[in-house]
Amino acid sequence: MKTALLVAYGGGHVPMIAPVVRELEARGIACTVMALTTGYRKASQLGLKPLGYRDFAHLVPERERVLAWGRALLGENSHPDVEEEESLWYLGVNYAQWVRELGEAGAAKRYAERGRTGFHPLEFMTAVVRQLAPDIVVVTNSPRTEAAATEAALRLGISSLSMTDLFVDATDPYCYRPVHADRITVLSPAVKQAMVEAGMAAQRLVVTGNPAFDTLCAPEVVLQARALRESLGWTQQRVILFAGHREELPGTPVAWQNQGFGTEVQEWLHRWVQSHANDALVTRYHPSEWHLYPTLPPGPRLHRSKPSVEPLHPLLLASDIVVVQTSTVGLEAALAGKRTICLKFAPSVREASYNYADLGFAEGVDSWAELDAALACRRSAPLVDPTAFYVGSSAERVAKLVIELGRRGPGALAE
Predict the structure, then answer these.
(1) Beta-strand relationship, 136-140 and 3-9
(2) CA 364/CA 386 separation, integer angstroms
(3) Which domains can be identified in the chain, with CATH numbers?
(4) What is the pTM of this model?
């Protein structure tokens, strides 16, 4: 076992692979990190020296046509944390696979129907994996390029491992993908059992926790949290963090669609803080979405957190109350011992197969009036045992599994 390729999307999943990379490198494993879209900047901040689509442009046939397709799609797909060149290659390469499979008209129809959610760049990722020839491919549970990387590994006879981040159950499309990694790491025994009930083989699933959560108990992060509160001048305030995301489910009220709901929550909390002098507010949105929301007006007790600049865990530890819909931040807040409030009236929460309140990690509120009452009440957070989720040791557990798989070869531990 000498080399590993790790592939991850976005600023939310890159922190899952970063501690695993450090554990592997400490054991002499050479790691290549492919960090996609907003994940590239996050990976760079974490010192991972990532690669992107553009670094493998030499593997792409008909490059000028591919770039032309990328330019045609860029308008609605640009992001301030993603360099334009990378976006062009990402969009163009994925679209090119559709053109090869379906023709120009078919590709246009597929994009109109599914947009980026339908991307599956199997040919490109097969070329990437073939060139790098790692002993193992490690991904998270994101679709598109990560799913294609897993399938490419299978094609080429290379071991693979996928890390899931949260609660996966029988309703999750992940369980029904046509191709799965040799091993899949999961958050807890309950998640493993739910995935077995969905028809997945028990021997393919390993409980490790989520490596992204390890730093929740790190002493240096506690110090960073204290410094953050001091820098904001909030040593005496109660800090409310709203970690929001878009609402995209069918049936979402028009006013709440996309960033509408998060904007309304932000405005409501802003009014709350304005009328409660001992409270302060931080808003933080999904790394792929933060730029879509209006900025808060200037104020000494208001702060907008930029995911590409400000690490999450110091901010979490600096907060007293965390307000969420279905974001991973809700679980992280509970594991950090923070009082967490779940907005059960959000469409994404109503339609989810689980929510943090029902799982015992948060207080649930069903209306603005209940949110008002919850914030007015000074109560303690539910007690959640971080060790039950391997907080602090998850990355080590995953790294050991990666090395075992890499040594034993593809399919050796699968059913």
Answers:
(1) parallel
(2) 21
(3) 3-213+392-408 (3.40.50.2000), 219-388 (3.40.50.12580)
(4) 0.84
